[in-house]
Fold this protein.
Amino acid sequence: MASVPFDQLDGFIWMNGEFVKWADAKIHVLTHGLHYASAVFEGERAYGGEIFKLTQHTERLHESARILGFTIPYSVAEIDDACRELLKKQGFSDAYIRPIAWRGSEQMGVSAQSSKINCAVAIWQWPSYFDPAQKMKGIRLDIAEWRRPDPRTIPSRAKAAGLYMICTLSKHAAEAKGYADAMMFDWRGYVAEATGANIFFVKDGKIHTPLPDCFLNGITRQTVIVLARQRGLEVIERHIQPEELEGFEQCFLTGSAAEVTPVAEIGPYNFQPGEITRTLMNDYSAAVQPKRAIAAE
């Protein structure tokens, strides 16, 4: 994490088609996105100067905006180019990328049909989402009080700012108890996800993961499923009951920020980071590294 407040970092931010100094990338206090959460965003990582699955993330940004009822005034290709150019301008090789789009301050109230749609990209260095020393042993998760809501009440397939309020509440409560994060159930009582990452379990050599029918089907989640199946591992996407947690042997989280993170504990349930978890950690690390051309000898 940054040692200084994020508004005091150095460099540039791409904002509405221009590179502006970091300190000058400002919005008004009456911005609709601030008051009514009409904002969508992405979280991406660059490895060795290349942004992993950049276009897939940008396409999801556009789709999230569509779900929230607005159109981003920059194409997927334009945002991709802005991300790549900003990464070079910041001088980073390994970094975290945060594109965001939001309704502006032209209209205040629940309705904001006349508000301008803004778009920005910020890039900073963010080495590990969890404590690296704890990560290798497996992190500890609390069980959240808040639950993922019925998708008929929220746009659950969008990566939208407002959906993360209960995640912040849950993570803060977990950290206050000494945990690294929290696992959330959904409104039906099924296992859902962590506050900012998808969750997987291992039992008898098979991988089980919750069906993403009321939470985001993460791009890292999809990547890890492909990697597991390439290894010949069976991946079962299904509803998981809370009482099943006792019988699982391994557990890990996936996400652009979390990457692949072993879990040692969820409330009263204990897990042991095992071979499948370690293999997928290594496979994911290999997958995100830029593929270098091999010169002919």
